[in-house]
Amino acid sequence: MNFLFNYSFEIALGTFLIMWLIYRRNGTWQNTITAQYQDKKIIQKRYKDVFRAVIGTLNYCDFAIQKKNYREGYITARTSWTMKSFGEHITIKMKGNTQGTHVVFHSRCKLETQLFDWGKNKQNTQKFFKVLKVIL
Question: pTM for this structure?
Answer without folding.
Answer: 0.74
